[in-house]
Amino acid sequence: MTEPEPRVLPEATLTRLTQYLRALNAFEAQGTERTSSGVLAKEAGVNPAILRKDLSLLGSYGTRGVGYVVTELAEHINRTLGLTKDWRVAILGAGNLGRALSGYAGFASRGFKVRAILDTSTNLIGSGVGDLVVEPIGTLGEVIRREQINIAVLAVPGEAAQELIDALAAHGVKSVLSFAPRPLRIPAGMIVRRVDLSTELQILAYHAVQS
Amino acid sequence: MTEPEPRVLPEATLTRLTQYLRALNAFEAQGTERTSSGVLAKEAGVNPAILRKDLSLLGSYGTRGVGYVVTELAEHINRTLGLTKDWRVAILGAGNLGRALSGYAGFASRGFKVRAILDTSTNLIGSGVGDLVVEPIGTLGEVIRREQINIAVLAVPGEAAQELIDALAAHGVKSVLSFAPRPLRIPAGMIVRRVDLSTELQILAYHAVQS
DNA sequence: AAGTGTGAACTTTTTCACAGCT
DNA sequence: AGCTGTGAAAAAGTTCACACTT
Predict the structure, then answer these.
(1) Which of B157, B177, B204 sits opposite A177 (nearest CB)?
(2) Pair (B196, B101) in one structural domain
(3) Distance separating alpha carbons of residues B45 and A62, to the nearest angstrom
(4) pLDDT tens across A36-61, in order?
């Protein structure tokens, strides 16, 4: 148990860890104190073996013959994922998507705080979005410093995305979630995750035609 | 060349195919007639070997020593993905996210037409969203029949998602893109893809802490 | 000469199956 | 007796490298 903890966890494992966490939170909410790989895996929709393998990558926190203590395991995954830190998010783009995201409940939970929303359009600048006011993209550097932004969400049209990624990098923001429908050149040291709605639909179309 | 075409393409291949398609469309737009695995792979941000391997799964459409004809290859990928068919989309949930999605340009392109938007809230029912009017979820079956919906987008709170999936299944809609932040029990024959924003943020947090 | 198509090697991820704790 | 933790096996996915076609 002198941990094997690898430098970096596989992407697939990370995705599953967030699902385990969600299930564990549900268990906590309903007062369940202990669980097992079988029960938890079922709740998260995965196979128990991979769950145990995933958890073994973070070190061992279960008890053989017994299972896992819900709060302990949740706490441990939280720590591993960095969810004990405070995340301050700026949303770039105050169009429909940007505004929808700024109010998205999932963002508010787990220490992700939307602290700013920016746009280029003079129509939008100055207007209110929830309890924020849309600021000009030109003030990006200032906003990042003022609010100590450490995560940015890109909800702008494809054309604008690359230059904003570069600007974010220049201002020291290293983590970006992009909704721009195009591949981006990622500056060194930056982590960009993309959510691509048209890709999702196209893959659905393929499966739908199959059946 | 009497095709090896597998019954079903790997998920990772599908994702890349949509990227190739996007790059090919850009080439078409700028009048480029031919390309090669090297050029196309660079544009799509992948390695040329996997690109050729992916394309070989759909049968061979290149010319050795020469490369690929842009329009031909695009057409071929389009056919494979089922993008020659007409896709009629209903959006379930007319909150911020649902409304943002209904106007999302990526949906309008490539034959995905948003034909209906539904909600439970009497505040929203009857209000306009783009050129659609929000209809009551209670009329789901009727709307699906009337508009011949074949893809649904779930933009509702987690609690409502499962029963809507079941209702969609009952009305013969087999393809769903879900934004609900929870795992769903998928009725037989249905394909559900999930986009989970809090999972994305949590994975970003992990990587941000790493560095 | 150039660039595809593809077996073979390699790498990563998942699943199996069981030894080892409690 | 029960359930974890984990090597070993299997499967899936990626990259290499080169024969083959134009």
Answers:
(1) B204
(2) yes
(3) 41
(4) 999 999 999 999 999 999 999 998 78
